[in-house]
Amino acid sequence: MDKPTTAQSASDYENHKFEYDASTFVNDPFRLEEEVEWGKIVTWTPPTVNYIGKELQVNEGKQIPVNTSDRFRILTLKDGKATIILEDKDGEMKRFPMEYAVGFRIHSGEKYGIETDGKTRIIEGSERNPSEPVDRANFAAEPFVVVDHSKPWGNEPIFSKKNEGDPIAMKILHLEKDGWLSLQAHAVKVESYYMSYGECDMVMEKTDRELDEFPLEYDCGYTTKVGQRHRHKGKTRMDVFEVSMPEDGSTTWRIEDKYARGDQTDEVRRMERGDI
């Protein structure tokens, strides 16, 4: 099957591209390991961004004990079997089975723990720095996901709530075979990616402003900077976890788009998603 062609969108990226410092545009994979009592923490976001993406690798026979979160974080199951224990606004501890593509939002001051059955992998996105004040009314002791089906290349299970002011965004990019995201750049947003399954070719702008295309590796992360052009191309059906700054009404420039879509402003975003 021939590779699909891209259509030029009505992007105004050309009017802005030199506002961004290309010397920051790198495409090196990132991975940092830390051994802990219950297993291993793999951090896949560099320390230069204001959020953290992790894989929590819980060994067989181990649990993550109940503790108090010092920042906002989101957890979702990657593989294995786990039960999450969450404190509700009344101080009661509730238990929920964890599922792939379903998230749990945990606020600062909220108690949580994880029980596992066998070797288990959990993806976490969080703020980089501890946050205050604690507001018990926000304690979200419940699973959450909303799926954006507006994408012509697949869909996006989203685990964060923009309308409640979540300080980070977290989702899964689910691409069907030969599905392509637009060649895009963000006016103010930074994003990081971590493979879940399948095969994906990544396009990222380099410091010389040329585009580099390469397969995404497993077990390490990739981060795009503000203004850096990038694109995901699904070689097979594939999922990639994304942790990022929240959408704040800024523009995503769709520089080239297989599906002939224009730039994504906040108004366009609301129309495409049906205000989800």
Structural notes for this entry:
The structure is a single chain. With 276 residues, the chain is mainly beta. It folds into two domains: 7-29 and 145-273, Jelly Rolls (Sandwich), CATH 2.60.120.10; 32-144, Jelly Rolls (Sandwich). It is built from one helix and 23 strands. It has one helix spanning 266-273; strands at 7-8, 32-36, 39-43, 51-58, 64-68, 73-79, 82-87, 93-97, 103-106, 111-116, 120-127, 143-144, 146-148, 154-158, 169-175, 183-186, 191-197, 200-205, 211-215, 221-224, 230-234, 238-244, 252-257. Strand 2 and strand 3 (39-43) form a beta hairpin. The protein is globular.
What is the CA-atom radius of gyration, in angstroms? Answer: 19 Å
- The largest beta-sheet arranges its strands as 2-3-4-11-6-9-12
Shape field:
globular
Q: Architecture of the largest domain in CATH?
A: Sandwich
Distance between the termini: 35 Å
User: What share of residues are in beta strands?
Assistant: 35-45%
- In the CATH hierarchy, the third-tier topology of the largest domain is known as Jelly Rolls
Average pLDDT, rounded to a whole number, is 93
